Amino acid sequence: MIRKCGPAFLLALMVFLLTGCNSELISQLSERQANEVVAMLEKHNIDAAKQKSDKSTFSVQVSPDVLSEATALLISYNLPSADDVEIAQQFPADAMITTPLGEKARLISAIEQRLGQTIRQLDYVSSARVHLSYPFTDDNAVNSASVFILYRGKVNQDEYISKIKRLVKNSVQGISYENISVVMFEQNAPVRITPADNSSVPKLYLLFGFLFAAVLIALLAGVLLNQVKKNGSLRFWDKKTAAEDNVS
C-alpha cells in the first residue's frame, strides 16, 4: 500500500509546502477588489496571489518578507475601494413604475460613468469622477459639470484642465465651457518601508522550506527510478502486489 501511495503522498506534501509559504495580506474581498489589490501590488513588483475563500469572497496573499510594504501600499492607495453608488441604482430599469425623470437620471449616470472611464485612461491619472447637474423637472437639461481628478507625477494642470473641459463639453449636449469645473489633486507617493533587521527570519524560513521541498523531490525521483529499475516502467503495482492487497 505504501508503494502505491508513496509518490502521490510526497508530491501532495511538496505542493502543500510550496503553497504554504505566503502570508495572508487581506481577506473578505469581492473578486473586483481582489483583482484591484493584486494589480496594484504587481505594479510595484510585489508578487501576489488571489485565493478564493468561499463562494463569494477572496483573499490576497504575499510573501512574508514583503508583508509590511504591501500593507503600507494598501493604506497609501486606500484599497480595497468600496463599490460605487450609482444614481441609476436609485431608478432601476425594472421598477414597477417608471418616470421620465428616472429615465433621464439613468442616462445622465451612464454619461458620468463613461466620461470617468475615459479620463482615467489619461497618463498619470489614477482616479477620476464626473458629476453632472441633475434636472429636477422633466424639461430642464444638464447645465453644469464638475470633474474630480487624482493624479500621480508631474503634469501640466492647465493643459489637462483645458483638454478635460473640452472633452466634457463635446460629450454633454447643451453645456457651456464656462460651466465646467475641473479640480485636480496630487496623490501622495506610496511609502517604501525599509525591511527591519529581523527580515532575515522569513527569508530563512523560505530557504528551509525550499530545501525541504528539494529533499522531497529527490526522494520522489529515487522512488520513480527504483520502480523503473524493477519493473522497466513507471507501474507502481503489479499482479503480485494486487494479489497481496486482496489477501490483506
From TrEMBL:
This is Lipoprotein. Its main location: membrane. It comes from Izhakiella australiensis. The chain crosses the membrane at residues 204-225. The keyword Transmembrane helix applies. PROSITE patterns: PROKAR_LIPOPROTEIN. Belongs to the YscJ lipoprotein family. The keyword Nucleotidyltransferase does not apply. Keywords: Cell outer membrane, Lipoprotein, Membrane, Palmitate, Protein transport, Signal, Transmembrane, Transmembrane helix, Transport. Residues 24-184 form the Flagellar M-ring N-terminal domain. It is found in: Cell outer membrane.
